[in-house]
Every structure is written in C-alpha cells, then in structure tokens.
C-alpha cells in the first residue's frame, strides 16, 4: 500500500487516492439508468414495454432491413435524449462510450480484471461517481471522477500511472511476438527526448510513444455540440496530434504510432 494511503487510513482523512476508488457503491443516477437501456443486442432494440415490442415487430413485418433501421433510429433517439441531460465532462465521457470497443472490458473473457477494477470501470461507464460524496482530493477540490482523472497534485499522478501500465503491457506483448524492446531509450547521447519504446526486429526498427488522455478533460469538449456532431475520439486525436511532433527527426517509416 502506498505511504500516502496508509497515512490517510491512520488519520481518518477523506483525501482521494487511486487505491481507494472502489470503496463504496452509490445508487445509480438517472443517467446511469438511461445508459442501461437495452440496445440492439437485446433484439428489439431499446424497447422494453410489451405493447411497444408488439407494435414494433408488426411495423417491421415483411420488410427486409426495417427492424435494423428502426432499431438504429430508436437507439440514436435514446442516446440523444440522454446526451441533452448531461453537462460538461459527462457529455464527452458518454460520447466516448459509444466508440468501437469501448465496452470490451465488460464482455471479452481475454480481458482479465479483478473485482475492484471491474467495479470501478462499470461505474465510470455508467457515469456514476466512484468515490463517496463529500470526499476531497489532496488539492482540496471535490474528488469527482473527472477531477481524479486530471489532477496533477496526486502523489500517484493518474495519467502517469495509466501511461506506465499501458507502456509495460504493450512492451510485454511485443516481446511475446519475438521483438526486442527497449524502454525509454535516448535517441542520441545529447538528446533529452525519450520515446516510450524502441522496437527492434530482424531487419527493421521502430519507435512508439504511448499517450493517455481522458475523454472528459476540459480542453477536449465543446459544450454546444450535439450528439450527432460529437467525436468519440476527440481527446485521443488531440493527444495524438501533440505527440506526432515529439520526435520530428524520424520519418514516418521509422515511427510506430499508438
């Protein structure tokens, strides 16, 4: 257990730390209930009332492709309605949840997560507060999900922690594929730039730089945009643009982007 976490337990402090994220379950909010509304994978889409289902099925009878089209339309309406009830970072997190693969940790058996990590992920996805109401960050601000993901005052900087975990996982995967990997190598003796991973194969090499962002960070969203205009990968694209200038001396053939 990190020293600052042990100190909090001894003193009874309510200061937030990454280790305490799965502390207690809070009742799902209205947005969480709406997020759980059945989707296309449930058959008749986001229709739950028996009469509605019957009317829905009758309307689609004998017309090829109409059920899928109506399901898509109904899903889009429910998403848009929920989007209108959200504000600020919650809007961008909700939009990012619609990106391809965003729900994979909930369904893919190859993704191994312990109970605490799974619980935290599920709360985040449902836009439910992870830490108890009233809990404060070390900087004194309210320890909301958005704040804990972006605060730079935490002893274990959340962004750095996530970056290092992804970096190590990616490097280990490359090693299993037979590549040699160097972590944060110097490009030259005089250079201070350190790409995250140097990948060496039989007759080629490449570097990759891991970047971690948060969909709800303040600079990533435009509050006026509609659900249809929102980009689920806006924050990731923004960080990628910043990272592509980090090592300008290498050509695109020598740079592997992540």
TrEMBL record:
Compositional bias ranges of the Low complexity kind: 13-29
Keyword Nucleotidyltransferase: yes
Keywords assigned by UniProt, alphabetized: Nucleotidyltransferase, RNA-directed DNA polymerase, Transferase
Region listing for Disordered, in residue ranges: 1-29, 239-258
GO MF annotations in UniProt: RNA-directed DNA polymerase activity
The protein, known as: Putative SLACS reverse transcriptase
Species of provenance: Trypanosoma cruzi
């Amino acid at each position: 257990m990190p020293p600052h976490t042990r100190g909090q337990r001894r003193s009874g402090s309510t200061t937030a730390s990454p280790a305490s994220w799965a502390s207690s379950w809070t009742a799902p909010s209205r947005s969480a209930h709406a997020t759980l509304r059945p989707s296309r994978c449930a058959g008749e889409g986001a229709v739950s009332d028996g009469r509605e289902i019957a009317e829905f099925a009758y309307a689609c009878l004998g017309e090829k492709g109409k059920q899928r089209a109506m399901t898509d339309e109904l899903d889009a309406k429910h998403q848009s309605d929920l989007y209108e009830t959200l504000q600020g970072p919650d809007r961008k997190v909700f939009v990012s949840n619609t990106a391809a693969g965003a729900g994979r940790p909930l369904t893919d058996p190859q993704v191994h997560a312990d109970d605490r990590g799974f619980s935290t992920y599920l709360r985040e996805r449902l836009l439910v507060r992870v830490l108890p109401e009233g809990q404060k960050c070390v900087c004194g601000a309210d320890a909301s999900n958005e704040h804990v993901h972006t605060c730079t005052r935490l002893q274990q900087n959340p962004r750095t922690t996530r970056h290092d975990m992804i970096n190590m996982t990616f490097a280990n995967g490359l090693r299993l594929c037979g590549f040699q990997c160097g972590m944060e190598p110097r490009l030259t003796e005089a250079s201070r730039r350190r790409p995250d991973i140097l990948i060496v194969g039989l007759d080629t090499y490449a570097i990759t730089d891991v970047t971690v962002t948060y969909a709800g960070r303040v600079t990533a969203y435009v509050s006026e945009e509609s659900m249809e205009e929102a980009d689920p990968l806006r924050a990731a694209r923004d960080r990628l643009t910043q990272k592509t200038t980090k090592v300008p001396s290498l050509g695109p053939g020598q740079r592997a982007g992540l």
